[in-house]
């Protein structure tokens, strides 16, 4: 790292005559007052913490800092301000669950139909209100009970992770019982969802606007927010874990254009970026003072094949489409190597649930594809349409990938048009089951496989209920998925889900394509950023500090 | 300021009639914009409730939200409800932020105004002298090369130019910030901070406009310079620069004002690409994000607002004609 660049990065925009004009006085005043900082007219006093503020260049900006009010994809800001009963260990890539607002993992009672949590006595919401069992129970009940007196308070709640809950009850101030409608083996993972953080009781009583305020309990709290400009978070001094929230302040600067975001990192204006392509990652590795990390993810990119459609109803045709695609070349040439090949729906990050080594491999074999098509009575191929989207965060390169697939399939006689739709239009039609063939990329929201497998392959999840838009309705798959989600015994779950994946892959309702390797980059003066951590848009930055 | 104060008394009545007529013409225009803004976005596929819930909510929950937001009503009923609000001065409420649309727009509009004014000023300051010089040196290598440069400026994609400027001045030289409007971690915002952040997006936006201001100035000036009265002025012994600046230039401004009027009006609706490249928090980026989110009230309100601004700017341009050319009357 050259001295001039390092020095330039220290002063954020390099030594320049403009910096001199702005005044060394302003700069030294800022440095001296680094523990007492403000922006604009607001002024926040806080205890001294380690290092300097960290600035993140973020690709998108949440419309709210509370997850129930945050539309669409969650992002960094929410992960810094919120915590739940349980959380994933952000220093561990294995999705290990550890206590959050609860002081320990719950007692599992009544054969998994009741979970008892003991809350920490030193957890507080950002307004200083203690986190109590009553606050969390009220919030959970508000989400699940249509007859709750405050049910109309907030209807944006993303209720999928409380859908198995019947009710919650405060046994005492710090003891919380959550009663389940049905057994859910993945429930511990679901308790990491922010639906279980709760809000102070007065927030509900006063009908506070969660799009403008936050009443979370995480290591950082909102200091100021200007849409399109910046979200500033200050360390919450009452946060229960001293290891988190090391940096005194986080600044989240929305930079939607990828090249501009990376340029801001190189210029030293931001300390962390993610969500950039492999080509940029390669280039950044050669830049002094920048550290680039690969991160294997839970993500899967696939194509759904509607099994109700002519030709696609035949398993041989679906298998042929898999054999006809050269996935290694697609990953190498289109994605620049920024993915691992997908053999089954789950990536290696699912640990023992990963079945890629034991399922049928659809290695590129156009001759075999043609033979299967001939067997299925479509020797001359057929015509169809690949529906894809024009791109959005988390969808890799859908149009380019579709074009590659189109060319591969044309070699075996399957002629497809490509119809690329803007995201909102695409997704609305895709989940209603309109598309015979559609691309999709998806990151499950928990480290438990049942969400991905059940939502996409269980017969009870066909539209409009959920995402089984390939309309797979196989009793054996259902049985295995139910078995896997119906026990807490790990060996039984592993066996059931692995067998389910074998069956699913054999039936080929998807074209299994790739698991993304995500990239993130930060400046070299960012310290203690965990080497291995689960996918989660920089959540582990709560452990980092800046020299 | 409108030129009322300098117009002869006899013209004031006609100017009032002119303004009144223009205001009356505005009504059907805005009505048409409201219809387009309302219905076109709804005709495009995409469900705002689906986007808001991320697809995680059950169909019943989505219906409940749809009902709460009034999105389950027939389109015409929704349109009438919205128009009632608009006539009451209320542009509606954002589906995403629950904030008044007008507040969202007024937070962003000043940022777009700053960028637009800076770009137009730069375009005029550099474009007009270039056009004048090219016209007075017609046929020379300066004339040819300046027109080539202007074609290049006109043709250069904003997106590419902006990124190049970021790389050169922000990353390599570190003279200027790569984007944003202020240093977000500064203790206080200052004029110099804003100025430093303004330079690159202004240059990006102004380049194309500089180019056609130069070209329009040149062609308009050349036409004027061929007039008899210019020959007379020269024959009187006036210096060439006096002839150009005092006699010729003013008469060549009409087409330039026309073009600038349309340009300013468009830019005040949001310079979408430049705002995206430089993360400039203006109206354009608000509109794009709202379209992608299907935040209908914000898109409708922003389009209506942009239309009002466009109409106003062009009205000012029309009034300026009379300032520039006293022969023009408001009949």
Task: Characterise the protein shown here.
The complex is a heterodimer of chains A (about 550) and B (about 325). With about 550 residues, chain A is of the alpha+beta class. In chain A, about 30% of the residues lie in helices and about 20% in strands. In chain A, strands 3, 10, 11, 12, 13, 14, 15, 16, 17, 18, 19 and 20 form a twelve-stranded mixed sheet that branches. A four-stranded antiparallel sheet of chain A has the order 6-7-9-8. In chain A, strands 1-2 form a two-stranded antiparallel ribbon. Chain B is an all-alpha fold. Chain B has helices at about 10-45, 50-55, 60-70, 75-85, 100-135, 140-155, 160-170, 190-225, 230-235, 240-250, 255-270, 270-275, 285-295, 295-325. Chains A and B meet through helix 2, helix 3, strand 1, strand 12 and helix 8 of A and helix 2, helix 3, helix 5, helix 7 and helix 8 of B.
Oligomer description: heterodimer
Mean pLDDT score of chain A: 86
Secondary-structure-derived class of chain B: mainly alpha
Q: Helical segment tally of chain A?
A: 17
**Biggest interface, which chains?**
A-B, 67 and 64 residues
Mean pLDDT level of chain B: 85
Radius of gyration of chain A: 25 Å
Helix-residue proportion of chain A: 25-40%
Largest sheet of chain B: none
> What is the approximate shape of chain B?
globular
What percent of the residues of chain B sit in helical stretches (DSSP H or I)?
over 70%
Q: How many DSSP H or I helices of chain B?
A: 14
Spans of chain A of 5+ residues with little confidence (pLDDT < 50)? 1-47
Detail the topology: elements first, then pairings.
The complex is a heterodimer of chains A (547) and B (331).
Chain A (H helix, E strand, L loop, with lengths): L2 H8 L6 H6 L1 H9 L3 E4 L2 E4 L8 E5 L17 H6 L4 E3 L8 E3 L7 E3 L4 E5 L14 H12 L20 E8 L2 E6 L6 H4 L10 H5 L14 E7 L3 E6 L13 E6 L3 H9 L5 E3 L3 H8 L4 E7 L3 E6 L9 H9 L3 H8 L4 E3 L24 H10 L6 E8 L8 H14 L2 E8 L1 H8 L6 E6 L7 H8 L17 H11 L4 H18 L2 E14 L2 E2 L17 E2 L1
Parallel strand pairs in A: 3-12, 3-13, 17-18, 17-19
Antiparallel strand pairs in A: 1-2, 4-5, 6-7, 7-9, 8-9, 10-11, 11-12, 13-20, 14-20, 15-19, 15-20, 16-20, 21-22
Chain B lengths: L8 H35 L4 H6 L5 H10 L6 H13 L13 H36 L4 H15 L2 H15 L18 H35 L2 H8 L4 H12 L1 H16 L3 H6 L5 H11 L2 H29 L7
Helix pairs in contact in B: 1-14, 5-6, 5-8, 5-11, 5-14, 6-8, 7-8, 8-11, 11-14, 13-14
